[in-house]
Amino acid sequence: MNMTDSLFDRSQPRRPQRHQPATPLSRWAVSLTALWVLLLCAALPLHHTHGQSATPAMTKNAPIQYPQTATVDVTDDYHGRTVADPYRWLEDVESEETAAWVSQQNKVTQAYLDKLPSRKPMRDKLEQLWNYSRTGLPVRRGDRYFFSHNDGLQNQSILYTAPADIASDQLSEKRTVLIDPNTLSEDGTVALGSWRPSDDGKLLAYSIADGGSDWRTWHVRNAETGEDTDDVVKWSKFSGVAWTPNSDGFYYARYAEPVEGEELTGTNENQMLYLHRLGTPQSEDVLVYSRPDEPQWGFSPSVTENERYLVIENWKGTEPKTQIFLRDLQNDDAPVRPIITGFDADYRFVAAVESTLYFLTDLDAPRRRVIAIDVADHLSDPDAMHEVDRSTWTSIIGETDDTLEDVSLLGDTIYASYLSDALSKIVRYSREGQRIDDVTLPGKGSASGFGGRSDATETFFSFSNYVTPPSIHRVNVATGESELWLRPEVPFNVNDYVTEQVFCESKDGTRVPILITRHRDSKNDASNRTLLYAYGGFNISLTPSYSPAVAAWLDSGGVYAVANLRGGGEYGSAWHEDGMRLKKQNVFDDFIASAEYLINTGITRSDKLAIRGGSNGGLLVGAVMTQRPDLFGACLPAVGVMDMLRYHKFTIGWAWATEYGSSDEEDQIDNLLSYSPLHNLKPGTCYPATLVTTADRDDRVVPGHSFKFAAALQAAQSCDNPTLIRIETRAGHGAGTPTSKKIDEYADLWSFLIENLQ
User: Fold this and answer.
1) Would you list the domain boundaries of the chain?
2) Does domain 41-126+492-756 have CATH number 3.40.50.1820?
């Protein structure tokens, strides 16, 4: 389970127990967005070894004097194409020179932001809107619920337990603090990462994230006493845990301890699956499976509820294609065996009934289906080191016109979560795949949850959209009937705002959905300050969710639009693949078409239109602002992948090559150069007002991307529009960011937009 917040306030993945390779973004919307553009060498000043500064930009009070950024004479040869990299030195995020540059840039940026008249009232409004009680979905194990809760302005949500089956109005009275991350650091930058209770609810494995890094340290806490055991497991990343059948240990994945000084930049390869036995040091952990001959393979463990099998989902990079390995836990000497091989599709383990395993897959079904595989005969053959004969696989739920996002087997009922034009739809099936009925939802929006063990009699789901705070509903598993269990009260009049879904036509005629949220009395007179957000990558679906930050933007008179671009997962694997690698320009065309729709329909005009995206979405913003600088009044690229020629050389960046292609591939280099934001900045161009944001401890998309882009942008800018960079300290890619830092950041972002969209 992972109940952490995200930088972009995006709804959590629907299967928090499944850990996939990290996409560059991330935690958004995890939130996330993506876009890109053309040329190369001429975009950057060449062969200068002395310092230089960009043209001073003007505010209403005084010109901005940007820090001087030194350039170096560095070039690389990419398959016969010579490309300069004059800001290469900014990749060394640990150097004294880079630290001095960060300090100088932050000083200039903060001086600009502090003078904005809207900043203080905006921060006050954000603090008011953030100050509401919010509770995470309860997870039942044994006779207790586990759930997170934040009273409002606490930097980190607290993990509680409470007796199962109590009414929601008894939570405050009956709850017991299990883990309070706010006590782990004074500034709130040490966060609770993933957590998972044992099946009997007596123990909790939980991970700690320090300063925003993706590295996790695992601990075990006694849920009855609230005391930690002596167990400490380090150097885990991109991994959850799976408890052993008798809860005397857990399976987890880790990397080798990094070289000192390279913890935040070194390449992450050769993930290994281990078994940790409680009460023993990590040095005695048992290696369960590794493939040093396949350094890009990673492993996600699950133990079936019937305690018979260890299921290992084997991923390679971020492309949603997996293999499945199995170990018979009833035989101590049983080897790890393949049951699905070839990386030909995505296979997600759902549940096991005796020797039959259920999987969610897009094999021969771009919008996914459910299959069942009986492994009994396969495992009875001691020499079977190949996959299970596919002629024995059974189709349980076939593909439909909607996109099947998640599946849970609860009792004899399958709960299937679909997306229909990026909006949630929940369907119940029998275990044999016969449709029963639809679960009634409170409205149009996002429903997530429906988790639990197969013997559960109840399950919970959360419902939200852009103007509806997440409410928790309890479902009778047998009947599918639901009741409101908990609804937060927010200091925001949600009835004043409306959300409509529209569709625009992209450059090649593709129909692209946009969700537009605004005050119900706003007019289509081109006067509205509008913020367009998107992601467009890694098969990630953007679905509606409530955010106090978005509420503040709406309260200030703004319009908020979210486009569901190709590259995402809203319409299945074909939609995703149509925005990958050599087709990446489709994503940017979709985003540009969405912006033009907002202008052509009179919702806004170019000088009042801003764009924002994070991680892959930061790339999106960087790409389109270089392709169409005339189209936008302001740009907010966050933690973006800005150097498409070198992204794969840092941390987990190599895993994104399946999505983007890499400069190591000759057939990809020209495409990457055509949209790489860093390589398409052209001196003498007037770029929109831009506030780049990143963090000094981001080890997903290393901050050198944003550093180099900001330096090049300041050098290229030809007009008075500000080009600033805001670098957060003691923070990473977004997960675990404390509430106080979120409020400060959004106050800066929104006041920057208000100032520059006039």
Assistant:
1) 41-126+492-756
2) yes
